[in-house]
Design a protein that fits this description.
Blueprint lengths: L9 H7 L30 E4 L5 E5 L6 E9 L12 H9 L8 H9 L4 E6 L3 E9 L3 H14 L4 H19 L2 H14 L11 H6 L2 H11 L6 E6 L3 H12 L22 E6 L5 E9 L8 H12 L5 H9 L6 E5 L7 E9 L3 H17 L4 H14 L7 H13 L5 H4 L1 H6 L3 H11 L6 E6 L1 H10 L5 E4 L28 E9 L2 E13 L2 E10 L3 E9 L5 E10 L2 E10 L2 E7 L8 E6 L9 H8 L7 E8 L4 E17 L2 E11 L5 E6 L6 E6 L4 E9 L3
Helix pairs in contact: 2-8, 4-9, 10-13, 10-17, 12-17
């Protein structure tokens, strides 16, 4: 919201350094330099052994840097999450290194950072890993901490709650990231909710996860039998083996047998999923379907095919959609091959008005690979890039270890790794066309479009690809009527507002960084809302006037800035017309003059907060709020959804609040509004930003 954003508008977030950098200007196309002659690559040698407890160990004495890298992998990952507890694997990884029987989280951090090392755990789709990296002189400490983490992790409750908050914050940030939204919906559409690849964490599943479930997950998968440890660096085989046996030789147990998920079903026709993101001026288009899994014999021709289609800045999608059409800053395709069946996808982020054309172009380029042989020059460029870039992944022992681990964990032949350049260079144009015909399915694909559904529904339906399923960013189905037809402007009862002064504290990464004051006063037939924000990074002052009974917008005056960068807004609504000036820095589009019709029901920036203050909030309620985007110079919409009640404690006291998720515009917000009307703002969290706004005091007008 432009000033529910709240008390912080996006412009001030830019000045605070919290918003993302502006999109770069397109670079001129450049011809790549001619490839260097092919060189013979000798894959680094490595040794292996299996301990009595079943732990496989790979020793790599490679590289010139005095670094010891330990990476332990076990089968599991997020695919092993309990069906109704998506997020367990990732939270287990977060908490695993935050306390053992010997050391607290703070002691672990101080110990490893004191020697310039790192200790971490992570959960990918199919595997769970723990790693410790130190200088060779401190290798024993790395082994010691890795062993402690694996064998003695205690999962302190305080760290579980911290991980929960971090996970929820990350999920909220993803709601405001169109490509993340598209990826989530694509996975669910392709795999279904009965397959672990199709299920992602939600705030609901994360809220329910208990400490005992993290420990149970650890106990189920973190066992030596079937695990793989890669020891990389200039340690020497004898010393490395002795340290492995000392710190992991006593590790015992075998993992619980994994349940094989049902295979995902093949699509029989093209399906279109429109994810409504109100107010978006761009769309993310994702076109794809099921692909291959590890071990497929056509992997190398498919790698070359994907490179030609969308695997780099010289690929067809990038060249056509960006350089020839000017629709996007970049477009790419991806073909993955995980332990189970993977996916193929082509992706582009484009302007709303060319969304339907982009869908057509992505499908056209898939068909082109099936119908036309790849020219020799294009084939050579793709093969040379893939084969030539392979040595760049072998420069350090850690990189080599990662390559070996991936190959062994996916049960691929080592020849796929050691002979990679030769396998790539042997791919022919005929093979590329054959695999395109066999593995690309443009006539039965899944199309996911994330953008403003009110602008996209009709063009997507006109393509005739199939019925269009409409949903919100959380995957809840929306009726078609929500996106089409004329809507009656919402009615907001301004008489429910109350005069007074509210004060807030601004926190950045948990540290107090500024203050804000809201003053609402009745002056004749108008409410006058005055906002003043001061922080170490900038300031903002806003005076907003709107009808005291009819809630109609009257005017807004706003000044904000940091140093020499200033933003000024002076707009009035007179007889249904918006008139005035907006002064913006060049990176935000420069100055604007307004003299245009103000669409009925459209609010001025900042009025959205007062609309929610008088709205009939209840669990599950949804509200659509049209407002003026002074940066874009257009009307956009926000969607507010009441998720439920939550008790919130701030410095002003403890309040029963409604938790409200807001989407639309640039990013998502989480608002905590007082349960009793008027629903004043108690706390605001900014999706994707380490910012929080807390109520610090209430007072009557002086």
């Amino acid at each position: 919201m432009k000033n529910l954003r709240a008390i912080l508008s996006p412009a001030l977030l830019i000045l605070l350094g919290a918003a993302g950098a502006a999109a770069q200007e397109p670079r001129p196309s450049e011809s790549p330099p001619p490839p260097l002659p092919a060189q013979t690559i000798e894959f680094p040698a490595f040794e292996s052994l299996t301990l009595d407890n079943g732990l496989r160990v790979i020793f790599l004495d490679h590289g010139t840097q005095p670094v010891s890298s330990l990476r332990l992998y076990v089968p599991g990952g997020t695919a092993a999450d309990p069906p109704d507890r998506a997020g367990v694997a990732s939270m287990t990884a977060t908490v695993l290194t935050r306390g053992t029987e010997r050391r607290s989280a703070e002691e672990i951090s101080a110990t490893i950072e004191g020697v310039g090392g790192s200790l971490s755990a992570s959960a990918s789709r199919d595997f769970f890993s723990v790693s410790a990296v130190t200088l060779v002189d401190h290798a024993e400490l790395g082994f010691q901490l890795l062993g402690e983490t694996v064998l003695q992790a205690t999962f302190p409750q305080s760290e579980v709650e911290l991980a929960r908050r971090q996970t929820l914050s990350s999920l909220q940030a993803q709601r405001g990231q169109p490509q993340a939204v598209a990826s989530r919906h694509f996975a669910r559409a392709v795999y279904g909710t009965d397959h672990p690849y199709g299920v992602r964490p939600t705030p609901g599943t994360v809220q329910e996860i208990q400490r005992e479930e993290l420990m149970a997950y650890r106990d189920a998968i973190l066992r030596p039998e079937g695990a793989l440890l890669v020891v990389a660096g200039r340690l020497g085989r004898e010393r490395a083996e002795a340290l492995v046996r000392e710190h992991l030789g006593g590790w015992q147990g075998r993992p619980e047998a994994a349940t094989e998920p049902p295979p995902p079903g093949e699509a029989e026709e093209t399906r279109v999923h429109l994810v409504h993101r109100p107010g978006a001026t761009q769309s993310v288009v994702l076109v794809g379907h099921l692909g291959i899994q590890a071990g497929n014999p056509d992997a190398f021709p498919l790698l070359v095919m994907n490179r030609i289609l969308g695997g780099g800045a010289d690929s067809r999608l990038f060249r056509i959609l960006r350089e020839e059409r000017g629709w996007t800053y970049g477009s790419f395709s991806e073909l993955n091959r995980p332990a189970q069946r993977g996916t193929f996808a082509a992706v582009a982020e484009v302007r709303t008005e060319v969304t339907d054309s982009t869908v057509v172009e992505l499908l056209t380029q898939m068909r082109r690979l099936q119908e036309e042989p790849v020219p020799q020059e294009e084939l050579d460029a793709a093969r040379n890039y893939l084969a030539g870039s392979f040595p760049l992944g072998l420069e350090t022992a850690d990189q080599v270890g990662g390559q070996v681990a991936s190959t062994l964990l996916l049960e691929l032949p080592l020849e796929d790794l050691t002979g990679y350049p030769d396998q790539i260079r042997s791919v022919t144009s005929e093979e590329v066309q054959r695999v395109a015909r066999e593995y690309l399915h443009p006539d039965r694909t899944t199309v996911v479009v994330v953008g403003d559904g009110t602008q996209l529904l009709a063009p997507l339906e006109a393509l005739g690809l199939g019925s269009v399923e409409i949903m919100d960013v959380d995957g809840e189905l929306l009726p078609r009527e929500e996106l089409v037809g004329e809507r009656e402007p919402a009615s907001w009862d301004a008489t429910l507002l109350e005069e007074g002064v509210r004060r807030y504290e601004l926190f950045i990464q948990g540290n107090p960084m500024g203050n804000a004051e809201y003053r609402l006063e009745r002056q004749g037939d108008a409410w006058v809302a005055t906002t003043t924000i001061t922080s170490m990074a900038g300031s903002q002052e806003t005076v907003l006037r709107f009808g005291a009974e009819d809630f109609l917008p009257h005017s807004i005056r706003q000044d904000q800035g940091q140093g020499p960068v200033r933003i000024s807004v002076a707009l009035d609504v007179v007889d249904g017309r918006l008139m005035g000036d907006v002064e913006l820095p060049p990176q935000m589009g420069g100055d604007r003059e307004y003299d245009q019709v103000m669409p009925p029901g459209t609010l001025l920036p900042g009025m959205d907060e007062f609309a929610l203050a008088v709205a009939p909030l209840e669990a599950g309620a949804r509200f659509t709020i049209p407002y003026l985007d002074v940066v874009q110079g257009s009307t956009t919409t926000l969607e507010a959804r009441v998720e439920g009640e939550e008790e919130i404690t701030v410095s002003a006291g403890t309040y029963q609040t409604w938790r409200v998720q807001v989407t639309g515009g640039e990013a998502g917000l989480t608002l905590f509004l007082r349960r009793d009307a008027p629903h004043i703002l108690i706390r605001q969290e900014f999706g994707g930003q380490p910012l929080r706004l807390d109520l610090s005091g209430l007072a009557p007008l002086p």
